[in-house]
Amino acid sequence: MSSKRYKKLPEKTRDLQSETLDKLIPILKQNCTTKFDESLDISLQINNKQKKNEINIRTVVNLPGGTSKKVKVGVVCEENKLQEAKDAGAEVVGGDELIEELKSGNISFEKLICTPGMMIKLSKLGKVLGPKGLMPNPKLGSVTNDVKKAVTDAKSGQVEIRNDKDGNIGISIGNKSFADDKLIMNFNAVIDALEKEKSNNTIKGDLIKQAFITSTMGVSYKIKLGKSI
Fold this sequence. Notes:
26% of the residues are buried. By secondary structure, the chain is α/β, with parallel strands linked by helices. The chain has helices at residues 4-7, 21-31, 82-88, 96-103, 116-122, 126-129, 147-155, 180-200, and strands spanning 39-46, 58-62, 73-76, 92-94, 111-114, 158-162, 168-175, 208-215, 221-222. The two termini are 39 Å apart.
């Protein structure tokens, strides 16, 4: 049963003609009538069905406008890199002893970074880390010797882009409190990252079939594809 607040929001917005993001953001913000700082989330449907293979996108993007989330980072590395990880802001840092803790399921962070030299040991924890989406991946920049950069990226607005089996991608580009230009920058960064993925795959036609944006407790609007100003 819909609340009185929700009933006051516009109806059948998905039937409206698509519009560019810069014109939709003020409308979305006006619809954010809850007492908390709602997030603005985009939903993308990619051209997932190809004749030869199915497209699987998994990459990361650094959102230039930042995010509202504070990410707690863990680092598994050699002793000579422990201080580097701590100085970069990692909350959980260690080597073999940390791996032993992880074996027991003692996980107190949202993202895990590992050096290549320690990855052989950490890879044995696939059953523990895999289901939580925490297994470091070289493609995502979380297996690296540049621990400082990896931790800084993870804490300054880096998010993962990944499609589900039906070809859908969901990602937040910020909150209502964000300035419009920061939300647009974040959206454009996501589009740029997906365009790079398209060039790495054999894709016929457009990669993105359609895109929508909504606020946490709001209604959805169709985005006119193409980068916003």
